[in-house]
Amino acid sequence: MTIDVARTALLLLDLQNDFMHPDGAYARGGAAAAEIAQLPGRLAPVVQAARAAGVLIVSTHFTLVPGRGGVPFISPHLAARRPFLGPGDFAPGSFGQALIDELAPADITVEKVAFSAFYMSRLDWVLRRAGIAHLVAAGIVTDGGVTSTLRDAHVRDYELTVLADGCAAFTPEIHETAIGGLARIAEVTTAGEAAAAFAAA
Q1: To which H or E segment does residue 182 belong?
Q2: Count of CB atoms situated within 10 Å of the CB of 76
Q3: Is-contact 168 38, C-beta < 8 A?
Q4: Which residue in 2, 40, 58, 82 is deepest, having the highest Cβ count within 10 Å?
């Protein structure tokens, strides 16, 4: 793995307090997963190496937009799977919506409202303006936001690298299947290899 600092961004997908923190919405709702909880420690050296190299760090933030009375708009499929979500969860500017402290701060943050961080967001616009052509991606969940975002990036002609151990899903089996599918469109590597490549850049 080689890095052209001017053309590369480290893309952190949905590594937010409401997904990952013990006080976040998912933990309160009983939807935490050990594989996901391990990611901050594994990714911190990658983020530190990228930051030291001058690589752009972009963080995407799943957001539940509050409607009238603060009740958030929640897609039916998400409401069915996560009935515990409610007012204040993933709210713009909230603790829950923010990037977890172990990886903060990002250079650029992008709100998203669906699995893909490209859907109805400014992500593509920001990346193009920054001259980014190569995305090194990590985050959650592998079969949801990670896969959807990278497939959308692929059709937009970005060069892609995914950190297999820098992503997680709610079961190892689901994660491995998703990584296998992404291998057709992205270079698959590890957090350790990415940190070394950033350090050498």
Answers
A1: helix 172-182
A2: 7
A3: yes
A4: 58
Kindly report, residue by residue over 43-102, the tens digit of the pLDDT: 999 999 999 999 999 999 999 999 999 999 999 999 999 999 999 999 999 999 999 999
List the beta bridge partners of residue 163: 189
pLDDT at 69: 94
Take residue 140 and report the two structure tokens written for it: 């959650």
Where does the pLDDT of residue 1 fall: very low under 50, low under 70, confident under 90, or very high at 90 and above? Answer: confident
- Whether 195 contacts 46, CB under 8 Å: yes
Cα–Cα distance between 99 and 200 in angstroms, integer?
26
**Helix (H/G/I), strand (E/B), else coil: 201:** coil
Helix (H, G, I), strand (E, B) or coil at 198: helix
Domains of the chain, start order: 5-56+101-106+114-200 (3.40.50.850)
Coil/strand/helix, residue 69: helix
Cα angle 8, 105, 32; round to 5: 100
Q: Residue 110 above 90 pLDDT?
A: yes
What is the DSSP code string of 106-157? PSEEEEESSSSTTTTSSHHHHHHHTT--EEEEEEE-IIIIIHHHHHHHHHTT
